[in-house]
Amino acid sequence: MDIAEVTVGITGAYGFLGWHMRAFLHSQSVVNVKLAGRETFASVDALKAFVQGCDVIFHFAGINRAHDEAEIAEGNPALAQRLVDAIEANDNKPFVVYSSSTHAAAESVYGVAKRRAGETIKEWASRSGGSAAVIQYPHLYGECGRPFYNSAIHTFCHQIVAGEVPMITGDAELRLLHAQDAVEYAWNVFLEGEAGVHSPEGRCISVRSVAELLQKMHESYSGGVVPDLRDPQD
């Protein structure tokens, strides 16, 4: 496949994972990238125009946190349904790659919402003869993440720089995956035409260990010493 001729659509294009996919595609010399933000989903016509001509759509739009749990419960499946409706209103059948989560296996409000959204996309592919991949990502982190929203990593960094001590409630284990590794994984799923459910691995580390590592790095940098960064994850 000549990637220079591929038309790529990204929903949630101005969010955390969308930003990283845009940066990754810039390095791949993909000439036609179409972006969809909140305003695109607010207009049926705009969403139809967005999906038209796309060879692949990376569906990264979603709601992670909200004051009202109903917004999470209904918002994620609704976004998936709107996307599917727009695709069915057009002639083309793009390969759809949906960014889900390992939480989709849980019965939390967020987990159920992500699972329902993934099922909506898989059902579309099944009845239409299209192709779809659902990627159940572990804990993602990286540049441009928002504290108290995207990741505990971002929250810890924000607190440490502000001179605060990271608050740790419990010491759960995280499976960390950098956002650039996450979008490269999604891109390769598309290139290889691997429909179905995928679960990329992440590095296992406890919440407390992450906080301690970041604190040590901050102290090192503050003292004018670059910490040991031979481990790519570090």
Helix and strand topology:
Blueprint: E1 7-11, H1 16-28, E2 32-36, H2 38-41, H3 44-51, E3 56-59, H4 69-88, E4 95-101, H5 109-128, E5 132-137, E6 139-141, H6 152-161, E7 173-178, H7 179-191, E8 196-198, E9 203-206, H8 207-222
Parallel strand pairs: 1-2, 1-3, 3-4, 4-5, 5-8, 6-7
Antiparallel strand pairs: 7-9
Task: Name some characteristics of this structure.
single chain; 234 residues; alpha/beta; 6-stranded parallel sheet; 3-stranded mixed sheet; 9 strands; 44% helix; 18% strand; globular
The beta-strand count equals 9
Please work out how many helical segments DSSP would assign.
Answer: 8
- Please state how the strands of the largest beta sheet are arranged side by side: 2-1-3-4-5-8
Shape: globular
Output the structural class: alpha/beta
Strand content: 15-25%
How many whole angstroms does the radius of gyration measure? Answer: 19 Å
Q: Major sheet: size, sense and barrel closure?
A: 6 strands, parallel
Q: What is the CA–CA distance across the termini? A: 34 Å
Order of helices and strands: EHEHHEHEHEEHEHEEH
Helix content: 40-55%
Identify low-pLDDT runs: none
**Mean pLDDT rating:** 90
What does this structure look like?
By secondary structure, the chain is an alpha/beta fold. The chain has 8 helices and 9 strands. The protein has helices spanning 16-28, 38-41, 44-51, 69-88, 109-128, 152-161, 179-191, 207-222, and strands at 7-11, 32-36, 56-59, 95-101, 132-137, 139-141, 173-178, 196-198, 203-206. The strands form 2 sheets. It has a 6-stranded parallel beta sheet, sandwiched between helices. A 3-stranded mixed beta sheet has the order 6-7-9. α6 (152-161) links the parallel β6 and β7 (173-178). α6 (152-161) packs parallel to α8. The protein starts with 6 loop residues before the first strand and ends in a 12-residue tail after the last helix. The mean pLDDT is 90.
